[in-house]
Amino acid sequence: AAGVIQSPRHLIKEKRETATLKCYPIPRHDTVYWYQQGPGQDPQFLISFYEKMQSDKGSIPDRFSAQQFSDYHSELNMSSLELGDSALYFCASSYRNEQFFGPGTRLTVL
Amino acid sequence: DAKTTQPPSMDCAEGRAANLPCNHSTISGNEYVYWYRQIHSQGPQYIIHGLKNNETNEMASLIITEDRKSSTLILPHATLRDTAVYYCIVRVAGSSNTGKLIFGQGTTLQVKP
Question: What is the dihedral sign for C-alpha B34, B37, B41, B43?
Answer without folding.
Answer: negative
